[in-house]
Amino acid sequence: MNEKTAITPATHTAPPAKFSHGVKKGNILQVAGQVGFLPAVDGQAPTPAGPTLREQTLQTLANVKAVLEEGGASWDDVMMMRVYLTDTAHFAEMNEIYNAYFEEQGLKAPASARTTVYVGLPAGLLIEIDALAVLG
Length: 136
What we know:
single chain, alpha+beta, 2 helices, 24% helix
């Protein structure tokens, strides 16, 4: 029987509640919602990559990628992504950033499925992204 394993990259601080940054069981890897926090530095509190949607989106994608890689996956293994935005006016800009990012990553076709919803996040955070990957 496959054990459930928590996935936490060295760049990530401990979550603020009882959850894992990623969980792998068998060939399934679920990445928890990631935000645009910069990599952990000597136990300091996490800080956002910057105030702009671009800075936070790129850091959020880097944080999702770090969990994927720690779990033995890549963007090509991702089946589903969910994007959570705090402002409906950010949708078009986020799509531009998202599309350019995956072009730079050399993502193989087809792209993963994606859902975008609008939510409230802690003050200063503009975006959160989670992902579901199937390995092998």
